Amino acid sequence: MNKDCIFCRIISGEIQSDIIYQDEEVIAIRDINPQAPTHLLVLPRAHIPSLADVGADQEQLLGHLVHVANELAKSEGIAEKGYRLVINCGLEAGQEVPHLHLHLLGGRPLGKLG
Ligand code: 5GP
Ligand code: ZN
Predict the structure, then answer these.
(1) In a mutational test of the pocket of ligand 1, which residue from 31, 51, 85, 91 has the highest number of ligand atoms less than 8 Å from its CB?
(2) Mean predicted confidence (pLDDT) in 68-89
(3) For the chain, which domains are there?
(4) What is the mean pLDDT of the chain?
(5) Pocket of ligand 1, beta carbon within 6 A
(6) What is the pTM of this model?
(7) If you average pLDDT over residues 56-67, what whole number do you get?
(8) Virtual CA dihedral for 111, 95, 16, 58, nearest 10 degrees?
(9) How far apart are CA 9 and CA 50, in angstroms?
(10) At residue 1, does pLDDT exceed 90?
(11) Which residues contact 55 (CB under 8 A, 6 or more apart)?
């Protein structure tokens, strides 16, 4: 828990958010500024600042984030047509919130990465 981190404050319940899924390790919320009809964020409860800070002992956690995103793609009804998982890491990738999170995007054609 980092008291200056917006996602830690959402996880602790201090800031209200639309929680779609939660378990002991991760939670999923709807992005406040959606870029697609489905735009969820899947985040670990632990405050890990970025993808680059994931240690060798946390491989299982990364796998779990992806697995939860895949399951949510099904429950959101976007699995068949296709979806995108994105992790922005660092400044030039446009990471704004320094708490590891995976974007699940779908519900419209997403175009090529540019
Ligand atoms: P990043 O640019 O760090 O990869 O993504 C951060 C994402 O968090 C953005 O898509 C932004 O809209 C979302 N976001 C920022 N603040 C909040 C918030 O308070 N609640 C929710 N649900 N999403 C947020
Ligand atoms: Zn945090």
Answers:
(1) 31
(2) 98
(3) 6-91 (3.30.428.10)
(4) 97
(5) 6, 17, 29-33, 41, 88, 94-97
(6) 0.97
(7) 97
(8) 100
(9) 17
(10) no
(11) none
